[in-house]
Amino acid sequence: MTAPRQDPLRDPRFFADPYPTYDRLREGCPVQRIPTGSGGHHAYLITGHPEAREAFTDPRLSKDTARFFADRPSNRDLHPAISRNMLASDPPAHTRQRRVATPLFTTGRVRELRPYITRVVDDLMTAWRSGTEVDLVAELAVPLPVTVVCELLGVPESDRATLAGWSHDLFDATDTGLVDAASHRIGDYLTHLVDTARATPGDGPLHSLLRDCDEGGLDRDETVSLAALLLVAGHETTTHFIGNAVLALLRHPEAFDRLRRDPDLIPGALDELLRFDSPVSVATFRHSTEDLRVGGVDIPAGFPVLIAPGAANRDPAAFPDPHRLDLDRDAGGHLSFGHGIHRCPGAPSARAEAEIALRALVTRFPNTRLAIPAESLTWRRTRLTRGLTSLPLTLTGFL
Fold first, then answer.
1. Where are the alpha helices (DSSP H) in 251-334?
2. Non-local CB neighbours of 47 within 8 Å, separated by 6+ positions
3. Which of 50-64, 174-188, 272-286 has the least mean pLDDT?
């Protein structure tokens, strides 16, 4: 196994299209040591599907970032609510927070949410007219999940766009100062929101969440960190899920036409859309707490380990002809929501929001097309998530 000489996940070409890079790395070895940044540090990148599933469930791969960086110098200044949330912890702390988060997104709870999600989509698309141009990202894919999660957290409507902007900054891979500043703005805002709700009795969604946190044994900091995770992870990946799915369908007109002719096929198509262009390209940070072996490769203790669902979902060993969008494929084994104890608890909500949004688009504007060439689209410059900065569409109804 020959390790790359430069970080392959920082190449500008990677952000535009990561899949050739993932293919090249996986063909060399599905578990590779790669350089990270410019400081001479290394990490292990996992691009194979069976290796990724194995790594997701290996308890020797810790998500406790505070433990990893405890004796390492760092110039980062993330707010504790961002740096020590459920995604950055191991059991039992992780178990305690997940026990509170999971019931928020059960199938039954999401079923109750569907009428509200539908109303939000209707409101967002009220002004859309056939023959006009819209930016699907700015006008639907961002505000839909932001509105849903902010409703859950009791965030006033006047603050929602600001919070969405801070969340966007949090994923800026090119400016760590901007990321740190955004983390403090989000953390401080949610701390104030939680403290105010505790001091003001009520029966709103946030008060219900706070009661769940109290019953689950979460302290003030854990409650704020859970709220931050729900806000950031609860909308950022759903935004990219919707944008990536619409782009994939428009670039595969035969698939778009099938859903247009039979929108009831949309729920069954979601797994393949998630597999084809995962909103999570590289999963959040893990590190090895002891020597282990994954995919026949030895990983020493003390190294960061990066699991790439975007690569695993295009592994031909798991999905034949993986670069083809096939709505008849059984793609239920995709890893876009993760796997194991850290699998995204909000997956049912994300699926419902994407399904309702796609159904509205294909039924109201069934002949919609890209307003610019696909090659001119720009992507977020972060290896963690994969999503468009904008998606200009020309809306067209029935011809």
1. 253-261, 266-276, 309-312
2. 22, 25, 26, 30, 31, 32, 308, 311, 312, 315
3. 174-188
